[in-house]
Design goal:
Blueprint lengths: L4 H24 L4 H22 L7 H7 L1
Length: 69
Amino acid sequence: MNLDITDFRSIATVLCFVAFLGVTWWAYAPGRRQQFDEAARLPFADESANESANGSANKNDPQEKAHHE
């Protein structure tokens, strides 16, 4: 069997397509929806935890001070 660069490109294309299908299946699998929904809410959970711990906003944060001035 004599392989040239075209054969390697074909094999690489097929392997990349299989990897793409695997990642797509993993991302859209029904069992992953709850995990992804929880991960999507993480930034908002952090903000609400900071607000409840500090009253309304983090008063030591310079960006918050600049924003409110």
